[in-house]
Amino acid sequence: MGKGDSKEEAKWTFWLLTAGISTTFGAAIPTGYNIGVINAPANYIKEWCNETIFETYGTVLTEGELDTFWAVVVSIFLIGGVIGSLGGAWLADKLGRKQSYLACGFLLVIGGVCFQFCRAVGSVELLLLGRVLVGLAAGLTTSTVPMYLTELAPIELRGALGVFCSMGVTGGVVVGQILSLEEIFGTEELWQFALSFYVLLVITFFVPYHWLPESPKYLYVIKQRRDEAINEIKRLGGKNVKDEYIRQQIESMRSEDVPNSVSDDEETQQTKSKQRSLWSVLTDPTLALPLILVCALQGGQQLSGINAVFFYSVSIFESVGLSSTGAKFANLGAGCLNLFVAFFTPMLMEKFNRRFLALLSCSMCGVFLFALTFIVYFIDHVSWFSYASIIAILLYILFYQIGLGPIPYFIGSELFEVGPRPAAMAMGSIASWGCNFLVAMLFTTLQSAWGAFVFLPFTVTCVLLTLLLKYYLPETRGRHISSIVPLVSNGFRSKPLVPWS
């Protein structure tokens, strides 16, 4: 489909919505849930770990050793995310996009079972195994689900459907925070239910899995099962799909497939070349710039400081005079704002250019992070700075969610053709989870050493990312991949901002 295609055909159909809702609630929300659920009941889980280790091994951990063990419990999820991202490229090509989603659900369910029964059997190993498994599922989710959804969608709806994963992760964090409150499951007796509750979502929203469509592009380009691909296009197009729409979709896929004039042997060889290994993608100079853009956006999403801001916001809310409990609820409110803005991102992606939203988001995040640094440094000297800090946090969250939050999840699907796309999405996901791990490990230490200036590295990240995107990110909304790839195929000598019609 190109720019001149009929807008009437770019519509939300039953199977398009079903795939979006199923993957969002079945994998993306559980991914965010496992990020947000672990903090509130941390003290109860740590006490249980200490008691269980003593009962099992006869060892009493010191406070420092217990803190180290807990850091392992938290961070092993992020390590699992890195490994899961790496495996995403292989699974997406070998099993297909749809079955990769099934693998996410399987890992999530097994992880949830580990959480539910670790206390009953008195096993900290089961708790650690559960965190590894949900981490693997999280990495697999962020590397394959956005790709699956964008390959199902017509070009006009590609961004709108692509942000479903981002919305799910954002919503899952909030749901995890809510269900882990002491008023619900975050108690000494019920914390295992808090950790495993998401399994109900996974099981419920995997019910329609059998009937979900496979990616037509995967079937047509990678597997060469063209009749099946065309059938999936018809299903996705709905009952009243027009022949012209089907023809346009086939032409779109052919542009990413092997030339029609080659012989059978040549076609077989070229078809194999569509299944690009991770190493071949990393060493291909024509893919260097788009790979840098994807990794910079996904890594920059974490290094922009969103998790650090949420971590620090509790103490800022307390500085205004809120109680510890009140500050936690205010922090939850900030998370709800994040989710509220996320609900509008499908409309934003459909109506506004990616470049505009990404540049606005990155630049304004940098502005408000710098403002937050200045405000927090002088917060004890100016009475109204406490309230100014809250405004800075809320505006940062607002601008983060209109671009830097959702766009990195799916931009790889718009910069890469079908062959190298799984490897590119996997590398982007690795950058995301790896940078998330760095922030989790270093933020508290840097905060103690630098104080308010801990936000400056995040500010610098936003500035550098803004410059990179300004000069090298092509506009991808409403454009076919065959017109985008040549714009970024010449490394940093590329000129991706050429006019287009």
TrEMBL record:
Transmembrane annotation, as ranges: 12-33, 69-92, 101-122, 128-149, 161-179, 191-212, 278-299, 329-349, 356-379, 385-411, 423-443, 449-473
Cellular compartment(s): Membrane
Alphabetical list of InterPro entries matching this protein: GLUT, MFS_dom, MFS_sugar_transport-like, MFS_trans_sf, Sugar/inositol_transpt, Sugar_transporter_CS
Keywords, comma-separated and alphabetical: Glycoprotein, Membrane, Transmembrane, Transmembrane helix, Transport
Domain of life: Eukaryota
Domain Major facilitator superfamily (MFS) profile: 20-477
Membrane topology, from the record: Multi-pass membrane protein
Pfam families reported for this sequence: Sugar_tr (PF00083)
Keyword Transport attributed: yes
Keyword check for Transport: yes
Residue numbers spanned by region Disordered: 253-272
Family: Belongs to the major facilitator superfamily. Sugar transporter (TC 2.A.1.1) family.
Protein name: Major facilitator superfamily (MFS) profile domain-containing protein
Gene: 109408907
